[in-house]
Amino acid sequence: MSADGSGTSSSRFGEKGLGLALEVLEQVAGHHDGITAAEIARAVGAPRATVYRTVNALVRDGYLVRRPDFSGFLLGARVLELAAIVDAHRRPAHRDVLDEVRSATGEAVHLVAFHRSGLAIVDEDPAQPLSDRATFLSDPTRSAPGHVWLVEQPNLPEPAGVAVERWRVTPPSEVVSAIHAAYAARGYAEQVGGLSAGRGCLAVSITDDDGHAIGALTLSTPVSRFSLAARHLGALRDAARSLRTLAQGHPVSFS
Amino acid sequence: MSALADAIRRGRPRLDLTRESPFAGLHRRHASVVDVVAQSVAATAPAGVMLVHPGALFGRSGSLAFTELVLTVGLVVAVALVIGMLSRRISSTGSLYTFTTRGLGPWAGIVGGSALAVGYLAIAMSTLSSGATRIAGLVSSEPRSISGVTVAVMAGTTVITAGVIARGVRMSTRILLVLETIAVAAVLAISLVALSSTGWDLAPLAPQPAEFSPDIVMLGIAFAIIGFVGFESGAALGPESRRPFASVPRGVLVSVFATGAVVLVGTAAQLALVAAGDPGGPWASTSGVGWVVDLIVATSFLACSLAMTNAATRLAFALSREGVIPGVFGRVSLRGVPAAGAILIAFAVFAVPATVLLLGGSRDTLRAVTSPAGMIGFLVAYALVCVAAPVFLARIGELTIGAAVLSGVAGAALLAVLGTAVVSTSDTNPVGLVAVLGILGVVSAAGMVRLRRGAGVIERVGVHDWAVASDTIGGDGEGSR
What is the spatial distance between Cα B305 and Cα B45, in angstroms, rounded to a whole number? Predict the structure, then answer.
């Protein structure tokens, strides 16, 4: 409609537009004293007319404001509303690894991080969610990642800024030593029927460079296929190694 | 951690922005795109234009009349798009004046602002007297008392205008919208009924190549553009709009397309009838509807006068906040409306034509000045804004080739039309032309004197509804700690 490329298009950005809009906001956020549209276009490498359209749409809706002398853009008050979307939109690096292992195995695969008092779910398989989340997080004996946690006894701090789930069940020492023995014999953890009568899961640990466990990758399958699940161990261990590289010695981030 | 997440988390308050907009006190962020459309459409007065212009247009240009109107609509759309580029970035009650100042600097800005003010006031005065004369003609058949009745109607209208504007922007725009919608619907209905009586003969709309001449076309556009001036006036409501950078460009463009379409259809119908040998239009031969026509034209014109006064009040508000004109025009009432300015301007709009009429002058005496004043004032203001737009966009680093071409073409066309209009007026109405150029010169010079002499005025001009600290992520530093 308009010749300067800042048309009256919908205020709802398309998926691509949203990505560009967030990139623009990121650029503006990095320049406390303001940045011009031309500088933004150079920085994000998008066509200038597209960037002008985007910045004007962001100004229109209050996500950006112009400096009174038009020398640059500043973050508008409405950006505060975006805080949640920003985090949701940013695709975490571990997602690619998980997508690959999920499609290679065809089973539910979840990523959990360890802290000293329990598990934190980092990435639950969106196609096949956990069957009993509450039990998964409260009783370490009922899931394969819980077994790994019992064996490894990680001493990592509880994540800050999120609601921390802690174990509510403390298993008797003979159960823990049985789990230890089984884990030592197998090299991975296994649990059947602990969360749901018809399902079983196995888990491998993710370790940092010093060999300390920082989390676990778990694969869950119906009992009928459980005896064949061990064939996926190679894929799980490869994925766990990739995740260790991504984590760079730090605990898996609680994003 | 991303820079955005970091910025959100830290929320550093901005100390380099002011806490208050230069338009503080004005009732802001409540009007919508409907109000912008209503203001712009009423200022354009399509119903009155459709009833008054086609016959005159045909008289001037013959078979070229409709072609000229189509070209005019194209030019007006181009100017609206240029204004859109600016109103998407600047929100100010000064509208075109502020845009020009931001692009070309204070001196050119004062010229553009003076031209715009002269245009608003000239059209407000001429539509007020024209509308009142028609009402007077309806209520009084005594020729000697017509002037007195006209002045009385003008006085009544002025009181209503001042009262409505003082009540707030939404009050005035909603009233304008209702009045103009009724008037337009009536005109379209009558036009189409009349047109079907002639069997839909549209041949008169086609230009005869033999009659073509660039001068006639240019002059025809200069005349026809009077029928559209005021379309930009919705831009003055930016600071009072909820989402100015969305509703102003959209509202102005919607107004232009709506009035353009309505005027094209209505004019087509009437030109067909006029050309069919009915020089008085479809109305002369249709006895008994003459008073309806007068009533519609009067309604449309009085609404136009209100809209022009409204726009002039907003322009004066910005000029006053800058210190160019007295502070009374920048004062707001309890409702957040520049009511004192509205009353003063409405009174001036009444006083000039009333004085002319009471001193024995006629509406034509007044029109000898207001017609060229409206035409030249708006053409200068539009042309300057078309020159200012690419300069402004280049300065802020947002100029595109499309924007440059569009403003260049529109600006060149406007300057050509302006030149033709000035040359033609110097032939047909030299006194009027001298008067208009004199008024423009005096008003601009007075503004320039204020720029030079007023303390800090030249630094302040170009104020707009800029972002204040609380519009940014860090807030104004109060209550956030």
Answer: 9
Count the neighbouring beta carbons within 10 Å of the beta carbon of residue B153. Answer: 23
Residues A81 and A117 occupy one common structural domain: no
Is A227 part of any domain?
yes
Least Cα separation, residue B41 to chain A (angstroms): 20
Where helices occur in A108-192 by DSSP H, the ranges are 133-138, 144-152, 173-186
Torsion, CA A244, CA A246, CA A247, CA A248, rounded to 10: 90
Q: Which domain holds residue A249?
A: 91-253
A141/A205 same-domain check:
yes
Q: Which of B243, B464, B473 sits opposite A75 (nearest CB)?
A: B473
Mean pLDDT for A12-31 is: 81
Q: In terms of domains, do A235 and A217 share one?
A: yes
Which 31-60 residues of chain A touch chain B by CB within 8 A?
A: 32-33, 36-39, 48-49, 52, 56, 59-60
Q: Is the pLDDT of residue B210 over 90?
A: no
Residues B97-120 have a mean pLDDT of 97
Q: What is the pLDDT of residues A165-182, one digit of tens each?
A: 899 999 999 999 999 999
- Answer with the residue of higher pLDDT: B376 or B474: B376
Q: Which residues of B touch A29 (CB under 8 A)?
A: 2-4, 6-8
Give Cβ neighbours of residue B439 (< 8 Å, ≥ 6 apart): B118, B369, B373
- Tell me which of A29, A62, A87 is where a domain ends: A87
Instruction: Provide the CATH number for the domain around residue A161.
Output: 3.30.450.40
Q: How many domains does chain A have?
A: 2
Mean pLDDT of B226-237: 95
Residue numbers in A near B466 (CB within 8 A): 66-68
B450 and A CB contact within 8 Å: no
Would an 8 Å CB–CB cutoff place B386 in contact with chain A?
no
Q: Do B402 and A49 touch (CB under 8 A)?
A: yes
How many whole angstroms separate alpha carbon B263 and alpha carbon B279? 19
Residues 405-434 of B with CB under 8 A from A: 405-406
* pLDDT tens figures, B419-455: 999 999 999 999 999 999 999 999 999 999 999 998 8
For residue B6, list chain A residues with Cβ-Cβ distance below 8 A: 29
Contact list in A for residue B250 (CB cut-off 8 A) is 8
d(CA B77, CA B82): 9
Helix (H) or strand (E) holding A119: strand A118-123
Same-domain check for residues A74 and A105: no
CB contact under 8 A, A56 and B89: yes
In a domain, A67, yes or no: yes
Average pLDDT of B325-353? 95
What per-residue confidence (pLDDT) applies to A253? 52
- pLDDT computed for residue B1 by the predictor: 46
Q: Is A6 on the interface with B (CB under 8 A)?
A: yes
Question: Against a cut of 0.80, is the pTM above it?
Answer: no
Q: Kindly state whether residue A1 falls inside one of the protein's structural domains.
A: no
- At residue A200, φ and ψ (nearest 5 deg) are -135, 160
pLDDT of residue A11: 43
Same domain for A137 and A77, yes or no, is no
The residue length of chain B stands at 481
- For chains A and B, CB pairs below 8 A equal 129
Same domain assignment for residues A231 and A144: yes
**Type of residue numbered A50:** T
Residue A82, domain CATH:
1.10.10.10
Q: Who wins on pLDDT, B243 or A7?
A: B243
The verdict on A70 touching B (C-beta cutoff 8 Å) is yes
Which domains, ranges and CATH numbers included, belong to chain B? 31-456 (1.20.1740.10)
- The residue out of A55, A87, A119 marking a domain boundary is A87
Q: pLDDT at position B169, please?
A: 83
Average pLDDT over residues A7-33: 74
On whether both A53 and A106 belong to a single domain, the answer is: no
